Amino acid sequence: MSNTSTDFIEFGVPGDKILVPRIGLGTMNLSGSYGSVNEEESLAVLNHAIKKGCVFWDSADVYSLGQNETLVGKALKDNRDKVILCTKFGHEFMVPEIATSDHHKGIVGINGKPEYVARAAEASLKGLGVDRIDVYYQHRVDPNVPIEETVAAMAELVKQGKVRYLGLSECSAETLRRAYKVHPIAAVEYEYNLWSLDPETNGILEACRELGVTLVAYSPLGRGFLTGQIRSFDDLEETDIRRRHPRFQPGNFEKNLELVLFIEELAARKGCTASQIALAWVLAQEKNLIVIPGTRRIKYLDQNISTNTIRLSEDELKEIRNAIAQVEIVGTRYPKAMMEKLNL
């Protein structure tokens, strides 16, 4: 374990490395997945992120069924060279005539076929309004298509200059190793936070270290739960996708708050926010790691970025580990059907 929150890390593949800020931005919730949004406010967050140097951005074609990439594209129009642009494919979906805030409605299934890889990339390039994606991830592994075939198709995009780096998301350690033999993988996205320690137990963190792959920790704030800003299930809007997540369900929610109360108590002692404790903890677990918290507010974006100034002592790290071990988290991190698509 490395107790560090150094601002930048070297990111990329052998022979092609760039410096990347360790605190990036997840953009999913800027398009309505976590409730109502205002496009003007969302664009203000993106533009502020650029000014603050928070320029490792993560999107996906399926977020709000293409709307998120379109939104990100608007912010990139005059700023393309300032942002490290990441997006994902893999969830084949149909866009309804009337756009919906529910980014799961319209999903057909997981598709890793080579012809779909090419088609999805073209659609993302068009939606984002760019001619190259910096990091292109397979969002979920297709169990019916050998990973070698999917990654070979992704590698073609690199040869064509449409993609710079390749990534995988929520894959197994074995899949990562097989994929890397076809083409170097720059990053693996995985949920990693105080109540989701899967990368530590399923071998993916070990495989990333072995191969020199950056772990990109998404939902480092537990989809907002670990911030302490949500105090009950009723705080979630009717259109908020978290209403379907087991850990947010009434009964489970109240039990899981025990971890939040501990974080808040430690934050009060340290003179920072619960969010900053949660982010600083993830950053301290691994040197070659990036966090991509999402937010719809400039205030919270600034808080997240300033986590770089927070240092957790060895005693504090042990205290947090002990708390994690003692608190029983109730509920899986996704609904059952989505859990079945992980670690393949």
TrEMBL record:
InterPro entries named among the record's database cross-references: Aldo-Keto_reductase, NAD(P)_OxRdtase_dom_sf, NADP_OxRdtase_dom
Top-level taxon in the UniProt lineage: Eukaryota
Domain NADP-dependent oxidoreductase: 22-323
Keywords: Oxidoreductase
Pfam families on file: Aldo_ket_red
Gene Ontology terms for molecular function: oxidoreductase activity
Keyword Transferase found: no
GO CC terms, sorted: cytoplasm
Listed PANTHER family: AFLATOXIN B1 ALDEHYDE REDUCTASE (PTHR43625), ALDO-KETO REDUCTASE YAKC [NADP(+)] (PTHR43625:SF40)
Name this polypeptide is given: NADP-dependent oxidoreductase domain-containing protein
Organism per entry: Coemansia guatemalensis
